[in-house]
Amino acid sequence: MTILDKYILKRYLATFGTMLLLFVPIGIMLNLAEQIGKMIDNEAPLNEILIYYLNFTIYIGSLLFPIFLFLSIIFFTSKLANNTEIVAILSSGVSYSRFLRPYWIGASIIAVMMFFMGMFIVPNASKGYNEFKFEYLKRCRKDRVTSNIFNQLNENDYIYVSSFDPARRIGYNFTFEHFNDQNQLDYKISASNIRWVPKDSLYRLTSYTKRKIRANTEIIEKKRRLDTLFIFNIEDLTPVSYVAETKNLFELDEFIEVQKKKGASNINTYILVKYRRWALPITAFILTVIGVAVSSVKRRGGMGVNLAFGIGVAFIYIFFDKVFGTLAEQSGFSPLLAVIIPNLVFGILGYYLLKNAKR
To answer: Are residues 218 and 272 in the same domain?
Structure first.
């Protein structure tokens, strides 16, 4: 690694680190100012508040990594351009491609860090962050799907509830169907509601009805109330909306496979989380290319013009990402395409800007 590589790489990483150190504390203070009243009203313990803001730092920092990276590159590369350092570097015989090498090295370091954090560190922080948020900050809001819940437990068993109350752990209009190996209905259990009783570690069914099919004959059994056991957990009826964010690389793959077998209606949400994690390191390279191409040319407006352009591009990128993400979550749009299209569009934009910058 030459002096040039070390010089640019040092500026690259130092500016990125400074951005994080400057803006993350600001984010914490703004969040604290907004939520302190709810924390006091809901009597959140001090130790849990401290852990929440540790998780908040990791969680929010990971979300803003690409934006901080992009603005960092524009900031320090614009300073190089305004000080005519880039002109001096290229005039000395260094090609533009060679000039970009330390940027590629820096992007690789950030990409590896983003991948490792996104796959293993952020999921744990996301769990603590969301659990605190829904426990103390959004008590009256739903954190999961609570209507028309259908799950396939295994090859033979299916359950359905028309609605679910997570606070009371009650499912309404419960149905359990068991099919035999010939894929014929063996018996069906229905109840007006199903409640988990933690004290006795069992389920309580109200207005219980069981229909058995035996040799073309239907046998009906009814009870006002029945305490029994099932092979599922009451929480598995409807996982929390952020459950995919709390799974690491290996847990997420396993969780998605289980949800596919169950026929989960919001499976696209989980798959989208998986693809976004894999695409995040690629984003580091795309934004690096765009940032260098935009800011390596000295402009009359100076750094302000470059930063304004960079912020505009960042907001457009977020808009594209949100639009296609929403399409994947709420319609039949492919989660893979929802991740690929924004990166492909901005990858092409980066290539175009880089060709013009070389001129």
So the answer is: no
